[in-house]
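Anyone up for a design puzzle?
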């Protein structure tokens, strides 16, 4: 075992130790396991939400897209920054309603707002299906980090299995408490490592940022601007809009929101967090440096660019430090994702069909489901060839279909009823799934459309149809919905 792997192993053991320590002395009931007893302040909530945002995708996928796609990679920086503007108004409203009604999951929110357990089950299933690609991203990132840091001694598949087992143990022991304590170390490490790599590598290899971009432009003319078709400006704008709407639709983000002590923490974070997003620029700088220094990585291998360049540049002990930081970027969001999926299935699907079971039974079932979900994610990790970015975009296209019904639910007099919400979500999902499975694009389906229309992100088309169907069905069944409106939550 080389020094790099020993350092990565030390980070893993430290994370597990923190997970055990964080849960010590606490009765890990459902509320403690999933939302930390709603007692986290602004700093912990910031770190938890940053943990969901700055994942292995930011660490490896961001540099991979800069390496493989050039200018279109900037969509990551733009959509995250704009999402914080939305959070300033959106999250305090969600937190306030959840606290008043003692909600513990995103699905609970839809059930309570629309007084419809069926909509809650649908939202839970949408969340589960959407989060699987994101869990795959974390496992894939873990696999890449361990495999590359071992200098080939450990294969990618072996590394994925090791990562899945570690993640499962970590989640089952600590719940959200372990995630938040590990997030403290993760964010310190990530800022230091990414900041250093993003500044040092362009200067080391090119003498500065401007010479680096001049060298790339000379070697690959046009690579640093948007292409005329495909990942064009139309794709960029539609993708940014889609991702801004979907940014806070993830169930694990709702869990982080519910864990806050006060609604004011979100407005503080909305002011500070965009500055934190600038760190992604340094991730891109690493990817751009790798273009000319480690050429030949194509397709999903582009995600290897950061580690391949680092291995060519630094000694093994520093690769271990980089790998340790990368490990934490997978561990924190991966644990939140696994916990959220397990909680949704146990509490918002199983318990709807067995309402008499106790919360303690639900916790036991959720913990039992963690390894099952991890196994499913391992299967897709080892049998899929998509890049991290493609997987993230697929998940976003699915989860964003919840946004229209959530947005209208915040209105005092919501014109949307449960029938419209369900019909809109199902229609949006059907469009995304059909186009994804057939590997079609707007351009292949409608070849006579203008190029800008053909380049639109398919998720934004599905979202528009979702919206139209939601409004139409709500208007058509308005009288029926009023007649069946329960008088209280107990009538559901």
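Challenge accepted. My sequence:
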């Amino acid at each position: 075992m080389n020094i790099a792997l020993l350092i990565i192993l030390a980070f893993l053991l430290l994370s597990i130790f923190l997970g055990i320590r964080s849960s010590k002395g606490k009765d890990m009931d459902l509320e403690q396991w999933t939302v930390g007893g709603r007692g986290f302040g602004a700093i912990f909530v910031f770190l938890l939400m940053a943990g969901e945002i700055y994942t292995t995708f930011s660490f490896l996928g961001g540099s991979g897209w800069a390496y493989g796609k050039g200018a279109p990679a900037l969509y990551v920086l733009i959509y995250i920054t704009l999402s914080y503007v939305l959070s300033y108004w959106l999250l305090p409203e969600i937190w306030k309603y959840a606290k008043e009604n003692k909600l513990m999951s995103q699905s609970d929110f839809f059930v309570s707002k629309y007084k419809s357990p069926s909509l809650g089950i649908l939202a839970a299933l949408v969340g589960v299906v959407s989060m699987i690609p994101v869990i795959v991203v974390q496992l894939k990132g873990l696999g890449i980090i361990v495999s590359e840091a071992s200098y080939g001694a450990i294969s990618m598949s072996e590394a994925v299995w090791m990562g899945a087992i570690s993640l499962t143990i970590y989640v089952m022991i600590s719940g959200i408490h372990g995630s938040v304590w590990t997030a403290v170390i993760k964010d310190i490490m990530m800022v230091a490592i990414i900041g250093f790599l993003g500044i040092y590598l362009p200067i080391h290899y090119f003498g500065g940022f401007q010479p680096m971009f001049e060298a790339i432009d000379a070697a690959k003319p046009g690579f640093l601007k948007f292409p005329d078709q495909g990942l064009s400006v139309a794709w960029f704008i539609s993708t940014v809009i889609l991702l801004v709407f979907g940014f806070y639709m993830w169930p694990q983000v709702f869990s982080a929101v519910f864990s806050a002590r006060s609604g004011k923490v979100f407005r503080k974070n909305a002011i500070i967090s965009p500055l934190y997003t600038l760190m992604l620029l340094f991730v891109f700088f690493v990817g751009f440096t790798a273009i000319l220094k480690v050429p030949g990585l194509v397709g999903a291998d582009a995600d290897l660019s950061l580690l391949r360049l680092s291995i060519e540049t630094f000694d093994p002990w520093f690769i271990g430090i980089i790998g340790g930081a990368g490990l934490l970027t997978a561990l924190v969001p991966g644990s939140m994702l696994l916990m959220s999926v397990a909680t949704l299935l146990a509490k918002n699907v199983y318990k709807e069909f067995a309402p008499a079971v106790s919360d303690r039974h639900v916790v036991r079932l959720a913990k039992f489901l963690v390894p099952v979900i991890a196994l499913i994610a391992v299967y897709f990790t080892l049998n899929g060839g998509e890049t991290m970015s493609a997987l993230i975009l697929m998940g976003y296209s699915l989860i964003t279909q919840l946004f229209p019904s959530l947005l209208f639910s915040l209105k005092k007099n919501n014109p949307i009823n449960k029938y419209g919400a369900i019909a809109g979500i199902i229609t949006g999902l059907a469009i995304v799934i059909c186009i994804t499975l057939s590997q079609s694009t707007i351009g292949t389906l409608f070849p006579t459309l203008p190029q800008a229309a053909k380049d639109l992100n398919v998720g934004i088309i599905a979202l528009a149809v979702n919206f139209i169907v939601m409004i139409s069905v709500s208007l058509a069944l308005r009288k029926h919905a009023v007649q069946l409106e329960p008088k209280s939550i107990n009538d559901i």
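A detail worth pointing out: Residues 486-492 have pLDDT under 50 and may be disordered.
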